[in-house]
Structure prediction request, 257 residues.
Amino acid sequence: MFADKFRLDGRVAVVTGGGQGIGLSCVQALAEFGARVVIADISMEIGRKGQDRMRELGHEVDLRQLDVTCSEDVEALARELVATYGKVDILVANAGIARSGVAAEDVTDEHWLAVNDVNYNGVFWCNRAFARDMLARGSGAIVNIGSMSGIISNRPQKQTYYNAAKAAVHQMTSSLGAEWADRGVRVNAVAPTYIETEMTMYRHDNDGMIDVWLRDTPMHRMGRPDEIASVVHFLACDASSLMTGTTVVADAGFTCW
Ligand code: NDP
Prediction:
């Protein structure tokens, strides 16, 4: 009985920014548990690499090009996927950019708007578009990728624009979770610590940065994408059926200090 709650056979899932990093690991986790998964990435090149990697692991996943900042394209993709597969049961709103390292007083309008457009607006466009069919069917699970940066202020790198956008994702998750709770659609978020992906490669260009990160982390290590994908899978499957509107922190203890 309990093992069945973790299965996703017959479910259709879409993962934005699913071509690499945390998103690709989510694709793998959902596929391993039986879901039909669609990678929706801004880059077809990265998406194809992710698709090939999944094929090597024995998972046939589908691929669509999507820029989450374009609400019309998000709406169109949601309609197309429902027409193609009959439904979308799971959305992982994962696409994000960091552009870390710019002091607040130096941030340009373009920089602020670009980060918020992907990390905040894009998450809402996806939640709104994919929830529509879920609400009509009375069933669905959405997992938004927030960040511990929505709870703490990172150091030494400056990134107010990113931190503020991620805090907004957590609040959006809570509000949407409450709004859709009695209509069968659950909305939860994950707030990861520093994870070893392309996004955090800039640590190698900044002397001593990684030392500060690890010193501030009780486990004294970064996380791996699969350690976030496991939490995403849990929130996407029936094992978390009583959970909505919550942000699960997976941060190696970072927010304890
Ligand atoms: P990556 O940069 O490795 O992957 C992000 C993916 O999203 C890339 O394939 C990227 O494509 C794609 N993407 C970027 N912009 C868009 C867009 N407008 N529409 C669709 N896809 C897009 O990042 P991570 O895997 O590290 O991050 C995934 C999520 O996890 C993000 O939301 C991030 O903020 C969050 N997170 C990451 C942490 C970390 O330490 N890595 C910590 C906490 C949260 P392209 O490369 O072409 O831009």
